[in-house]
Amino acid sequence: MELLRSNLSRVRIPEPTNRIYKDECCISYDTPKSEGGLYVDMNSFLAFGKEFVDWNYEKTGNPVYLHIKATRKLVPEDRPSKKPTLLAIGIEGGFDNNDPDYEQSYEIVILPDYATLPFPSVELPEKVRLAADAVIMSVGAGKKEQIAAWTADTKIVSKHAMELKQLDNGVIVPPSGWKCEKCDKNENLWLNLTDGSILCGRKNWDGTGGNDHAVNHYNVSRYPLAVKLGTITADLEAADVYSYDEDESVVDPLLAQHLQHFGIDFSSLQKTEMTTAERELDQNTNFDWNRIQESGQEVEPLFGPGYTGLVNLGNSCYLAATMQVMFSTRSFCSRYYSDQSLKVAFDTAPADPTVDLNMQLTKLAHGLLSGKYSIPSTKKQEGVPPQMFKSVIAAKHPEFSTMRQQDALEFFLHLIDQVERVNTGNPIFDPSRSFKFGIEERLQCPSGKVAYNKRYDYILSLSIPLHRATNKKELEDFQKLKAEKDAKGEELSSNEIVRPRVPLMDCLECFSAPEELHDFYSTALDAKTTATKTAGLTSFPDYLVLHMRKFVLEEGWVPKKLDVYIDVPDTIDISNMRSKGLQRGEELLPDSAVEDVGINANEDIVNQLVSMGFQYLHCQKAAISTSNVGLEEAMNWLLNHMNDPDIDEPIAKAQKSASFIDPSKLETLISFGFDEDTARKALQASDGDIEKATEWIFNPPSGVSNMDTTPSSSGNAVDAALPDGQGKYRLIGLVSHIGTSTHCGHYVAHIYKNGRWVIFNDDKVGVSKNPPLDMGYLYFFERIDA
Known about the structure:
- The chain is an alpha+beta fold.
- Among the domains are: 153 residues, 2-Layer Sandwich (Herpes Virus-1); 95 residues, Herpes Virus-1 (2-Layer Sandwich), CATH 3.30.40; 154 residues, Cysteine proteinases (Cathepsin B, Chain A, Alpha-Beta Complex), CATH 3.90.70; 38 residues, Helicase, Ruva Protein, domain 3 (Orthogonal Bundle); 36 residues, Orthogonal Bundle (Helicase, Ruva Protein, domain 3).
- The protein is 28% helix and 19% strand.
- It is built from 23 helices and 27 strands.
- Strand 4 and strand 5 form a beta hairpin.
- The chain starts with a helix and ends with a strand.
- About 7% of the residues have low confidence.
- Pfam families: UBA, UCH, zf-UBP, zf-UBP_var.
- Its EC number is 3.4.19.12.
């Protein structure tokens, strides 16, 4: 007892705002049910398994812990299930998953010698009793986040919805091809339900997202309601409607009517979609659902290292399927498992390791790959719950932080972006680089002159050319049979349905095929014309992710999932897709330029415009073109010239040549690994500001290439800084999806491991007898010479 009294200064009584972890170790997936129980640090309120609590003592010196041990209770097999009051599983008020009940016991433990004192006990100091009681009575941080995410989806009806004013301005919104009216953003776009303007959303805390044009428009117009494009489906209740006046997501009961005002008509779709939804409720008769999950087949369960499942947290299958494939790649396995121990990750993590992405990725990797939580038994595998990882990776993200289903593609790109950010400055350790490659577009106008634009990407998004189906005769026969059955009022059985079969290589060929680009402004002809665009890859990544565009919008905004199979071979060769760069005899299109007025942009004007969300280059041009007269003049010029074909072209050569480039700043950028030409362009475009120049290099304005291709002796455009090799790949995994849209339904992963296909269906892991290789949404290929 004296030992405890001597350490009372290291004990805190938790306050309501403290996050208390008492359900799961922050380094591993140990819980109070684990053999050694769980130790809660009575100063930081972080929890540690028996194997890891010493690490925390070494790092923090905190000696006092509440030891929680859960022992299984014997309960009658016929206990009644509780009626759920919340759409969640495994939490208070949610669906009862019939898990066994546990009885918890407690004791106070003092490190380093593990001296133990019973709890509860009146002999304990009052401070310790109050602190322990507060921890025991609290809702754990993980469960609290889960409940908050579920209840956060409850929205109010907007006070503006029933009497919303809509302008008769003739605006008709097309089903695709949207772009912000004030900048070049084509994602995170919002349709204002009063005037039909399409503008980008808010800028996120980390610089991503939009440019605040939608909210700025509200500040000027006071038109309150907007709906996020891309969230409008047959289920209008799932559409993301935001009220700027009420400053929150809301429900618009008249959304269908408000959308119809702008040519978006769902009246015919809803009836069709309802029939489809009702039919798909019966999963046992849904052929695609059963096939992707391999339902009805005796699946041999697998256990051991690399065969650990992930518990579904509630619509988290998109995360589970994606992470299983990611941790089947050498780059992620090496970075977060074989080359990084849990001890190193914990020692280098901040005071709270639950909010550190590196720590939680390492925890997840060891949970999935070590085999510790996948031990053969007569029971089904329980899997590990990725709650802490989800909390970190989804932090401050408006979609992934909810409990709604999400798009696996969007999650993959978000994951890659976050991993790249935390590894900034350490490219050798960055596993996201193994997915990164360059895409080069070649534009040729009727003058014969060419332009090259280059960008970086992590996925190759492929259209599906249905006209190249290899089973056209069977499709014709099927259409005849369908017509006959429809005439008789009969339904087709699942084994009678015939779907188009399109070879994957035809999808890849379409990516590189010449494409006509209308309304292209040719600087050689000084006029708009039709150009020919082709695309190729400047490097072949270690891992190539192919995204199949199965979801399209038809006339009248009717969303449709292409009912198609993709014939995917075990290996592919895309060597012919290598970009060749500028060739001998080709002449580049001349640079477009604004009028050279012999002055530099006024930085005060530029910075004020940038703060409003406009691009830095555009703001420079506005200031120069209005002779730096003032903010209002520059703003008016900018609004009138946003759609100019040359708005994204660099500042005029005469102006650039007049700009002084500080040699020391040039050397600094070169020392970062950029070539001199790129560094010089960046400094010119950013008026000598190194921070803005770096941002310009990584995120150039649309249509501007930050690494313009130049002739080389080999004639090839190769990215020396990125992984590269031959164009031969082998299929290692796929993520399949079943459902009417990417934001509903279910995701499952199939991965090729140790000479066989394995299915990862949330916490279920087993040998795949019939992998649905032709039904993938995302395909993961590994370069053979990687």
